[in-house]
Amino acid sequence: MIADKFSELQKAVGPEITRTDLVPAFQSLLKDTEAEVRAIAANKVKDFCLNLDKQHQESIIMTYILPCVKELVADPNQHVKSALASVIMGLSPILGRHNTIEHLLPLFLAQLKDECPEVRLNIISNLDCVNEVIGIQQLSQSLLPAIVELAEDSKWRVRSAIIEYMPLLAGQLGQEFFDEKLNALCMTWLMDHVFAIREAATLNLRKLVDQFGAEWAENTIIPKVLAMSRDQNYLYRMTCLFCINVLAEACGSDISTRLLLPTVLTMANDKVANVRFNVAKTLQKIAPQLDQSVIQPQVKPVLDKLNIDADMDVKYSASEAIAGIAALG
C-alpha cells in the first residue's frame, strides 16, 4: 500500500517534488475514505514530517499537515486515533516549544480523554518527548489536570485504567515530580469504595517500589500504608494487609521485619474476624521475607493464639499459616 511506503518515496524523489507533489498526496491519504488507509498514513505522520526539507519543514507542517492531524484526533475509527496517538508526540521536537504549547497540547489533551484505552496509553507512553521540549512545569500545568480528572472519574473502570498507567507515568516524569503531584492520588485509591480499585492500587504500589526502590517506599509509602491499620473502616484495615503482602516482597527482609511485621502482629487483636483471618494469611505470605530469628519468638505465638480463635475461618487460616511456615524449615 502506497501509504506505507511514503517515507521511502520522499527520500527517493527529494525535497522539491515532496513539497509540490507528495505533500498534497499525503494530505489525501490522511483524509482517505477508508479507515485502514487513514490509520497507515496517520502512523507515518512523524516520519513524513521528519523527512521534510528543514527550510520549509515548519511551514509545511503547520499549513498542510496539522489541519489533517486535528481532524484525525476526532476520527470515528479507534484504530486511526490509536495510530496517530502513537506518533503525534514526536511532532513536539520538530515544531518546538511555542507551537507545541499553542497547537499540539490541545490535541494531546483531547487524546488523553479519549474513550479508547489504547489512545490514552499511547499518549502517556510518550510524554517524555513533550517534556524535553516544553519542560516539566508546563507539562504539569497542562496535561496533569486531565490525568487527575480521569483518576477521579465517577466511572470506576476509568479510574482503574489510569491506575494501570501510573508506573509508566512515574518512569516518564521522575520521582520528584511524582511525589509532588501524583503520590497522594495513589494513596487515595487505596481507600476507594470499589474493591477492584483498591486491589489495582495495591498492585500499583508494588510496581512503584520496583520503579523507585525500597528506600523511597520506606520514606514515602509505608508510613501511609501502616496508618491504614488504625482506620475505623475494617475494609481499609484489610487493604493495609494486602499492601503489606506486596510490599514485603518488593522491599526485602530488613523493612519487612523492622516496619511491616509489628503492624501485622498488632492487627491480630482486631475485633473483626475477617481482619484476623487475613492477618494469618499475611503472616504466611511474608514469612519468607522476614529475618528468620523472629519467627519463633514473635510470629508463632500470634499464630498459636489465632489457632484457638472463636471464629472457625480464623482458626483454619491460622492452622494453614502454621503448616506453611513450618514447611519453610
TrEMBL record:
Limits of the Phosphatase PP2A regulatory subunit A/Splicing factor 3B subunit 1-like HEAT repeat domain: 15-96
Signal peptide: none
Domain of life assignment: Eukaryota
GO MF entry, a single one: protein phosphatase regulator activity
Alphabetic keyword roster: Repeat
InterPro entries: ARM-like (IPR011989), ARM-type_fold (IPR016024), HEAT (IPR000357), HEAT_type_2 (IPR021133), PP2A/SF3B1-like_HEAT (IPR054573), PP2A_Regulatory_Subunit_A (IPR051023)
Presence of the UniProt keyword Nucleotide-binding in the record: no
HEAT repeat spans: 22-59, 65-103, 104-142, 143-181, 260-298
Presence of the UniProt keyword Repeat in the record: yes
Gene Ontology cellular component annotations, sorted alphabetically: cytosol; nucleus; protein phosphatase type 2A complex
Family designation: Belongs to the phosphatase 2A regulatory subunit A family.
Protein's UniProt name: HEAT domain-containing protein
Source taxonomy: Eukaryota, Metazoa, Ecdysozoa, Arthropoda, Hexapoda
